[in-house]
Amino acid sequence: MNERVKRFKKILKEKGLDGFIVTSPVNIYYLTGFRGVSATEREAILVVNPSKVILITGRLYKHEASRLKSKSLDVKIADERNQINQFIKSTITSLRGLTPKVGFEEHDLKYSEFKHFTKLLKGIKLIPVKHLIEDLRIIKSDEEIKNIERAQVISQKAFDQVIKTIKVGQTEAEIAEKLEKIIKNFGGQGLAFESIVASGPNSALPHYVTGKRRIKKGDVLLFDFGAKYKNYCADLSRTIFLGRARDEQRNIYDHVQTSQNMAIAKICDGLAAKEAFGYIDRHFKKHKIHQYFLHSLGHGIGLEVHEKPSLSKKSKEKLAEGMIFSIEPGLYFPSWGGVRIEDLVLIKNGRAKLIGKPARFIQI
User: Fold this and answer.
1) 129-139, pLDDT tens digit by residue?
2) What pLDDT score does 50 carry?
3) Which residues form the Peptidase M24 domain (predicted)?
4) Among residues 5, 120, 104, which one has the least CA distance to residue 54?
5) How far apart, in Å, are the Cα atoms of 337 and each of 11, 28, 199, 239?
6) In whole angstroms, what is the distance from residue 58 CA to residue 305 CA?
7) Kindly report the CA angle at 16 between 11 and 19, in degrees rounded to 5?
């Protein structure tokens, strides 16, 4: 039995659960290695009980799923959707106890699916549970760390390459397309998420959707993107200037970079995540620019681009050894644009370690 499943079963026992239904494709992959094709379709369901773990999927995935079969992982191949229901029912109803308690992923299951399970599993007490597996995923293994580091390094190399190709008159979308090609050329699996390439006033919108605006001399150009490598994500933000930056813009860039460096230097094992946010917030308040900081300081990353922990003002989490998360201060001004610098850090030997190379001030 792999260590992840062992840890998960231990948690189920501590929670007083007799079993668990895993529906999230990402969590199924984390526990079993089964990937499927779509991250949004129900291509597999995982049933966990004290004695065994059962992966149930359709015949389209027979070859992939069968390779994962082991003493601790049983695989059931359904010829049709109705047979999937039969496998779930037979596995769950075999649990001992007068009224077995079976957990499910409250944040993932649709209401229609919940009603379906309630009807299918009469006599079983279904317990909604939040983020049991996501909490396991917070601390990364050595292999996960290696994959995320590789994804981030690919992202940085791709950025260094794409800025050499930038010319006034290109559209944001053209630059984003070029960036994706470069990522794949450097060995990336693809994009971790849709890249943001925001020019001029568009860079003042933290979650701008890349469009067809043509870049002009004097623009701020903000990148937010990440490569994916062996299913693990990277996340990188860089801000450059097309032509000579104005004194105000250079000053804002320096504030963002200084605040990031300060936060990374202070972050350590055991620090409250909200305190990491506080370092940045206090720096910006001191210089009376805090009203232009519009989002949290960062987020965890792994199989998904947004994972635990959250480095926000109201976060209740503590940072710990083995966590990887982003540090991404930003300041946004509707009149001319924004500056964001984002890097990933790993808590190792008690301190935050930058993954890859730090940002540098760039004018082209």
Assistant:
1) 999 999 999 99
2) 81
3) 147-348
4) 5
5) 47, 41, 8, 10
6) 28
7) 75
Cα distances (Å, whole numbers) of residue 139 to 13, 208, 319: 21, 30, 10
Is residue 204 very low, low, confident or very high in pLDDT (cuts 50, 70, 90)? very high
Please report which helix (H) or strand (E) contains residue 351, including its range. strand 351-354
pTM for this one?
A: 0.95
The mean pLDDT of the chain is: 95
The DSSP 8-state label assigned to residue 168 in this structure reads T
- Residue 39 clears pLDDT 90, i.e. is over it: no
Token pair 């293994």 is at which residue? 141
Does residue 46 contact residue 28 with C-beta atoms inside 8 Å?
Answer: yes
- Residue 239 tokens read as 């801000």
CA-CA-CA-CA torsion sign (60, 61, 67, 73): negative
Q: What is the pLDDT of residues 86-104, one digit of tens each?
A: 898 888 887 766 678 999 9
- Alpha-carbon span 19 to 37, nearest angstrom: 26
Question: Distance (Å, rounded) from C-alpha 73 to C-alpha 69?
Answer: 5
Of 283, 285, 277, 293, nearest in space to 333 by CA:
293
* Distance (Å, whole) CA 276 – CA 272: 7
Higher pLDDT, 206 or 86: 206
Torsion of CA 143, 145, 149, 150, to 10 degrees: 20
Walk me through the domains of the chain, giving residue ranges and CATH numbers.
3-137 (3.40.350.10), 142-354 (3.90.230.10)
SS (H, E, C) 192-217: CCCCEEEEHHHHHCCCCCCCCCECCC
Give me the half-sphere count of Cα atoms (radius 13 Å) on the Cβ side of residue 180. Answer: 13
d(CA 73, CA 54) in angstroms, rounded, equals: 6
Cα–Cα distance between 150 and 111 in angstroms, integer? Answer: 38
Name residues whose C-beta falls within 8 Å of residue 91's C-beta, 6 or more positions apart in sequence. Answer: 47, 49, 54, 56
Per DSSP, 272 falls in state: B
What is the distance between the alpha carbons of residues 299 and 304, in angstroms, rounded to a whole number? 11
Query: What is the DSSP-derived secondary structure letter of residue 292?
Result: G
